[in-house]
Amino acid sequence: MVLVAGGVYLATSGGGGPKPVADKSPSAQATQSSSVQPSVSATDGTGESPTDDPTDGYATPPPATGFEGQWQDASGKTLTIGSKYTSGQAKGDYSVNFLNPGDSNGILLGIGMDRSDGSFRIALKPMGSDKESDYQAATLTRSGDSVVVNWDNGGQNTLKWAGHE
Predict the structure, then answer these.
(1) Which of 55, 106, 134, 161 is in the most buried spot, having the most CB atoms within 10 Å?
(2) Does the pLDDT value for residue 149 go beyond 50?
(3) What are φ and ψ of residue 54, in 5° steps?
(4) According to the UniProt record, where is the region Disordered (predicted)?
C-alpha cells in the first residue's frame, strides 16, 4: 500500500503586520515497497478449516445459566442486564434496560432480580415518564441460548444472546 499525504500549512504572524498567508507544506514522496504482506487464512491454527462453533459471532459465549449480558432479536429489541448493584437502595438487584425501537416508549430502565425458581423478574420504567400506567414488568426464563420475556400485560419476546456488555 502506498500513502501520499499533502496539506496546507497556515502561517500567521502576530501584531499589526501582514495578514495570514497560506503556503504549501512538503508532501510525502511515494515509494515502492518491497515488503511481503501477510496473508489471512481460513484455518483455526491447526491447519483445518473452522467448524460451525455455536459461539461464532458472539463477543463472549452465552452463560450456561443466568441472565447477565445482552440479548437481542432481529427487529432490534435489546435487553441488557448489567451487574448487581453493590450499594444503595437497589443493592443486590441487577441494572436492566430494554430498547424497543418500534415502541413509543423506546428506552426502558429498571431493575431485575433472580427468582428462586430459576427465572428472573424485571420492573421497567420508560425514560422521561413518571406515569405508573407506563411501567412494565416481566418474567424472564432461559431457553438454550435465548431469553424468553413474558410481559405481565401480555405478549412475549424471545431474544437471542448478543454478548456480554
Answers:
(1) 161
(2) yes
(3) -65, -10
(4) 11-74
